[in-house]
Amino acid sequence: MFVDGGYRDATSGETFESRTPRDGSVLARVARGGADDVDRAVRAARAAFDDGRWRSLAPRARKQVLLRWAELIREHTEELALLETLDVGKPVNESVRVDVASAAYCIQWYAEALDKTYDEVAPSGEGSLVTITREPLGVVGAVVPWNYPLIITSWKLAPALATGNSVVLKPAEQSSLSALLLARLAVEAGIPDGVLNVVTGLGPEAGAALGRHPDVDKIAFTGSGEVGRMFLGYAAESNGKQVQLEAGGKSPQLVLADASNLTAAAEAVAWGICYNAGQTCNAGSRLVVDRAVREELMPQVLEVARSFVVGDPLDPATTMGPIVDQRQLDRVLAYLDIGRDEGAEVIGGARVATGTGGYYVEPAVLDKVSNDSRVAQEEIFGPVLSVVEFDGLEEGLRLANQTSYGLAASVWTSDLATGHRVARQLRAGTVWVNTFDATDVFAPFGGFKASGAGRDKSLHALDEYTGLKTTWFDLS
Ligand code: NAD
Which end of the chain has fewer surrounding CB within 10 Å, N or C? Predict the structure, then answer.
């Protein structure tokens, strides 16, 4: 673990195995943090917050430290990318070009923003001066998943630290390694000891202890809805801490009858479910397609999906690595059976490279799926596309919205007015029109409905890590 400026063992001395999905072998033994360790980290974070060693620095000083951190991340690109690829099976090309680069840029972006955001003066008249200032919340617990460890971690840490909070990060047990290096680089960049701590460990142990800790002011969580709701429970049982949730989706890619560029749509649909082996919260896992264009679209989707090179994530030619672990692979394969039982036509989805000991599976399409079925409603989190057909815009829109989730959606149409109208009516935190998964740190990310509450990224995330303070000066 990384607590109070240095690496530590768990108080119990216990560890757990971290296996690489590349071949199933043990990659590392990681400290198995428990409630004692979480408490130690929270106390270090609280001490750092209370004495102001970070939050009381001039904004421009905090900015310089965070910029240096982003630079150090870039200087360690290959090391971080290798850790990420070994730990979670991301193709190494993507780890370098996307994951490390985005994490560094996210930290840079918030560093640059932090000395350019102003507070407010209320219209109180001449007898008083009333200021409204944003104050850091205190100790933030960040609980993150394994699908984009560096990226999602940076979405939480960058705005939390930019606004002067202290942080205790609990990485997913499948992906502790890049977080541990990230923390060391933060201290090297000048983030004072105790401001950023990483407690590795299992969800029900370290994660639950962080959620229940009475001196944590806020939890920023990304992961499954089930565990997200547990954090609401932990907050209720303990100190009523704020809980921000990003809890996945079943995002529709809605292709309307007037979509003219079906080649582009097919490309986006296939990438939207195959990228990161479908282990993406906003994966376009539901293709909702008008019967009028279905026959022309589907062969192209299948062709793009089949063009993914599934294999060793360390091979630069690989475009789809393994599933993160055995449990997740079993889950994906089980959903193929569920789809079959529900009457879907299953195309692809074979296990491949079994001799390696790794968790490889080909992209799969579940065709002719009813939108009520489990495979159209539940998050599979693998390269599995469920295809639902409709007749006419109204039915398509109804089916697209017929989900408990509301994270993301896309609509394909050649009519800009239709695109506008449908985008307004799709109940999702992000809607793409004639594209999919376009993203940048300036755009808020998060969901409606069961996909959670609160937003990562953009200047709006600064509000997630601050509270408003009203200060009333009597001038009479
Ligand atoms: P998860 O929700 O169990 O794990 C997310 C984080 O919560 C991890 O850090 C984990 O250690 C922690 N956690 C787990 N159980 C906990 C508990 N009882 N108390 C406190 N913390 C706990 O996700 P998972 O099990 O790794 O994946 C299961 C499913 O969740 C996936 O199949 C997928 O559908 C979904 N998922 C969503 C996202 C996303 O980005 N929204 C990411 C990963 C997984």
Answer: C
Residue nearest (by alpha carbon) to ligand 1 atom 26:
145
Atom 27 of ligand 1, nearest CA residue: 224
Residue range 295-299: average pLDDT?
98
The pLDDT of 243-258, averaged and rounded, is 98
Least Cα distance to 336 among 319, 353, 351 occurs for 351
**Residues noted as catalytic:** 246
Strands of the sheet with 466-474, listed across from one edge: 120-121, 128-136, 466-474
Same domain, 155 and 27: yes
Tokens describing residue 18: 């971290």
Mean pLDDT of 181-197: 98
**CB of 246 shorter than 6 A to ligand 1:** yes
Q: Is the CB of 173 under 6 A from ligand 1?
A: yes
Number of folded domains in the chain? 2
CATH number at 256 reads 3.40.309.10
Q: Which domain holds residue 272?
A: 252-440
Residue 230, ligand 1, Cβ within 6 A = yes
Taking residues 142-147, report their average pLDDT.
Answer: 98
Radius of gyration of the chain (CA): 23
